[in-house]
Amino acid sequence: MDLQELETYFRSLDRSFFVESDMKKYATLDEPLPIGYGQTISQPSLVLEMTRLLSPEKDSKVLEIGTGSGFQTAILAKMSGKVYTVERIDKLMEKAKKRLETLNFTNVYYKVGDGSMGWKEYAPYDRIMVTAAARVLPVELVNQLANGGRMVIPIGPPDLQELKLITKTENGVIQSKTMGMVRFVELKGQYGWTKE
Ligand code: SAM
Question: Which of the listed CATH numbers 3.50.4.10, 3.10.20.30, 3.20.20.70, 3.40.50.150 matches domain 3-182?
Fold first, then answer.
């Protein structure tokens, strides 16, 4: 991944475009902000850090779980080949899709559903980014990760999680490293903290 390109694009992206009017005045803060439906747009410095860890290449096929506002999606779409993004709240997905289309991204594919089960139809993925806190490492996501691939996923209870970097070697061996502590909203669904 070209780190310079990532940082330049990250700095050029106006976060106020991704939040509702009452939150726009806070968009430059390095803080998560509410986006409705009990969800948040993540802290910008964490988005940057997680993208660095994921390290997508220009031809990577990326699966993103938790589209939210579409802010992280835009960065992934800029830095990789194709992005398959899954969000469980249809109203959030509708707004995110509109924003990403306004930004002229044509390499993003959208699905409303339980992303903890991945998106089997288009697997395997070179990179998987999860932006909500999982209860355990979802076996479906591990199975949908390509050999030589990388996954970034917060795992742990709703108040504090370990940020995990999962790698799959060319021979299919799974390795897991804890890269720090983070606080994300909970992943729901099969591998989340609540089913609904
Ligand atoms: N990356 C997003 C952004 O840049 O705005 C922020 C994501 S927000 C912290 C987490 C998102 O994950 C929420 O929009 C939430 O609805 C979604 N989510 C939670 N559980 C999910 C699931 N099982 N499948 C898909 N999306 C899920």
Answer: 3.40.50.150
Ligand 1 nearest atom to the CA of residue 64, by list position:
1
| This prediction's pTM | 0.96
Which is catalytic among the residues 12, 42, 45, 55?
A: 42
Q: Which atom of ligand 1 is nearest to the CA of 68?
A: 14
Q: Residue of the nearest CA to atom 1 in ligand 1?
A: 72
Query: Rounded to an integer, what distance in angstroms lies between the CA atom of residue 165 and that of residue 177?
Result: 5
For residue range 13-25, what is the model confidence (pLDDT) as tens digits?
Answer: 999 999 999 999 9
Which tokens sit at 47? Answer: 């988005």
Give dist(CA 48, CA 45) in Å, integer. Answer: 5
> In this predicted model, what pLDDT tens digit does every residue of 9-65 receive, in sequence order?
999 999 999 999 999 999 999 999 999 999 999 999 999 999 999 999 999 999 999
